[in-house]
Amino acid sequence: MDRGVHHGLPLITSRRSAPSPCLVVAAARAARTDKLDAALVEFEPFPFDGQAATRFGTLIALTLGAKRHRLDLMTAAIASARGLRYTRATRRTSVHQLRERHSSR
């Protein structure tokens, strides 16, 4: 039998088991939070202000039939209100690739 500790209490199991799904989810959330924290330190986010909100309403009206994510539209509205080109990055697009694209303009 394996002995361990769970929330400060002894834990006895008959065999070694995989990590709890809760621990896996918590680890994934912590990794995402670390990435977000790093991005916030490196980049200053644009606010979702009145001009962006107006543009967001226009974008919603134009894309009601298309199945777009609202967060994509909010980001696009902020970029459009500031005259910036909007490119939706995929998981394969690194911060460095985005920075290279931006600096080459």
Please provide a written account of the structure:
The protein is mainly alpha-helical and 105 residues long. The chain has two domains: 1-45; 47-96, no CATH class. The chain is built from four helices and two strands, in the order E-E-H-H-H-H. It has helices at 21-42, 50-62, 70-81, 95-103; strands at 2-6, 9-13. It has a two-stranded antiparallel ribbon. Helix 2 (50-62) packs across helix 3 (70-81). The protein is extended. The N and C termini lie far apart (63 Å). The model has no long low-confidence stretch (mean pLDDT 74).
N-to-C order of helices and strands: EEHHHH
Characterize the main sheet: 2 strands, antiparallel
Radius of gyration, taken over Cα atoms and rounded to an integer in Å: 22 Å
The tally of helices reads 4
Helix content: 40-55%
Strand order of the largest sheet: 1-2
The coarse silhouette is extended
Query: By helix and strand content, what is the structural category?
Result: mainly alpha
What is the distance, rounded to the nearest whole angstrom, between the alpha carbons of the first and last residues? 63 Å
Averaged pLDDT: 74
SS elements, strand count? 2
Number of domains: 2
